[in-house]
Specification:
Keywords: Coiled coil, Ubl conjugation pathway. 28% of the residues lie in helices and 12% in strands. The protein is an alpha/beta fold.
């Protein structure tokens, strides 16, 4: 029932039509319902809607499939949103009329709407209508919407979404401006079950004040990610963080400013298990010590923070014993002393410390629980410490030593250590731009892969 060209999904003279008699006598109807459902599951939504018109049995089965389609995603081939399926009249992709016709049939079953790219829609026309004014009206049972790729949606688009979709649990937005803050507040206040909210950094600056945070339900929200925050007012963030009872994940940055009151409030949010403050601007290094109060923290991302000191890292390592993931890439003020303190994190699985001015001495004492270690660009790291870690950390599966000062000694040690592994874990080791010469290595290990 597939086709490569149509003008209207309801009527197409080029589409083959089967009569009731033809279908009854066809071999396909000798199949049971389960087999037919399996066959129909390979059809696009467009073709499923067409197949419903063949006979009552097909209609019943196809309606079951429509109810099972919960996600409208532009990259999903199930929706046939590729240009080739829509004929010459569409320049960029699917026209809104086609989308409307489809959603009138199955929009009430859609729970997830994600626009990964705008190209599937024909927005070259003078009569272009945004999918954001259509989808909320026909998909009123949405629980998740991701429109990160839409730059500064219009107020009417946000109001349409706010007035029609009140069961949203996850909202992911792209570039916003201050003029939309009132409409965003309406959207957030109308969705009392919200657990996830994100303002993406992919599309540029989000120059809102943060007042919208006051309209997020403090009883349900679990994750907030604000990735651009240059003009945000900290009072709004502080007030919001105090009322969020179950906040597990928080991202703020880049270039977000942190005063002592903000850091103290974050430190008192004991429910946090994930925190990211990339490119943060702290009032003072001492304020970072408030993060040591987050005893339940499992993942901490502090990359590109030039105010992070050895003492800060030591306090965090002594108190945040549940940490499994730590990223301190390009924190140039960290020395060997700071890395040595990380040995206290006995549950640490992932450590990313690219671009640091540290030696290999503390590397040898890192937790043997490590699975991933990246030291890209750490030019002072040599063989000895790395070899000690490789021998101890039998669960190590990724080791990036690019631009480090290691030699073939590290490769020999990795061959020997991994050859003795009984857990079947393969160590992938990147030695690009090092002073090694792997061509001289004759021995091999089944549990070692070397990349250059």
């Amino acid at each position: 029932m597939t086709t490569n060209n149509y003008d209207d999904i309801n009527t197409n003279p080029k589409r083959i039509k089967l009569s009731e008699t033809d279908v009854d006598n066809s071999l396909i109807n000798d199949l049971n319902d389960d087999c037919l459902l399996d066959i129909f599951s390979w059809l696009s939504i467009v073709d499923i809607i067409q197949a419903e018109k063949v006979c009552e049995r097909w209609k019943r089965l196809c309606q079951q499939l429509r109810k099972a389609v919960e996600s409208l995603e532009c990259k999903n081939k199930k929706w046939k949103l590729e240009k080739k399926y829509f004929g010459k009249k569409v320049h960029e992709g699917m026209c809104i009329n086609d989308l409307t016709n489809i959603l009138q049939s199955c929009g009430s079953f859609i729970k997830y709407f994600r626009i990964i790219t705008l190209k599937p829609f024909d927005y070259s026309s003078k009569d272009y209508t945004s999918p954001l004014t259509i989808v909320p009206q026909l998909c009123t049972n949405l629980v998740e919407i991701n429109i990160e790729t839409i730059n500064s949606p219009s107020p009417i688009e946000i109001r349409t979404l706010a007035n029609n979709c009140t069961e949203l649990k996850k909202i992911s937005l792209g570039q916003f401006n201050k003029e939309l803050e009132k409409d965003l507040s309406l959207l957030l206040s109308n969705n009392k079950k919200l657990t996830y909210f994100s303002l993406s950094h992919e599309c540029g600056l989000n120059n809102m004040t943060g007042e919208f945070l006051e309209y997020i339900s403090g009883d349900t929200i679990e994750e907030i990610h604000i990735r651009r925050s240059e003009r945000a007012k900290l009072d709004y963030f502080i007030s919001a963080l105090k009322k969020f009872k179950h906040l597990r994940s928080f991202t703020y940055g880049p270039n977000g400013f942190f005063n002592d009151a903000m850091m103290k409030t974050i430190g008192n949010t004991k429910s946090l298990i994930y925190l990211s403050t990339i490119l943060a601007l702290y009032k003072s290094p001492s304020s970072i010590n408030y993060l040591a109060n987050l005893v339940n923290l499992k993942e901490l991302i502090l990359s590109c923070n030039n105010q992070l000191q050895d003492d800060n890292l030591k306090n965090i390592s002594n108190c945040c014993k549940q940490l499994e993931i730590l990223e301190i890439n390009f924190c140039y003020t960290i020395t060997d002393q700071g890395i040595e303190s990380i040995s206290n994190l006995k549950k640490l699985r992932i450590l990313k410390m690219d671009g640091l001015y540290v030696t290999d001495k503390p590397i040898g004492s890192l937790p043997d629980s490590l699975e991933i270690l990246t030291c890209f660009g750490c030019e002072k790291i040599e063989d000895n410490g790395v070899i000690k870690l490789i021998k101890r950390a039998s669960n190590l599966k990724q080791l990036n030593l690019s631009l480090c000062s290691i030699t073939n000694m590290t490769i020999y040690a990795a061959i020997e250590a991994t050859s003795k592994r009984t857990n079947n874990i393969i160590l992938e080791m990147n030695i690009d731009e090092t002073i090694t010469n792997s061509s001289k290595i004759t021995k091999k290990s089944p549990f070692l892969k070397i990349y250059k």
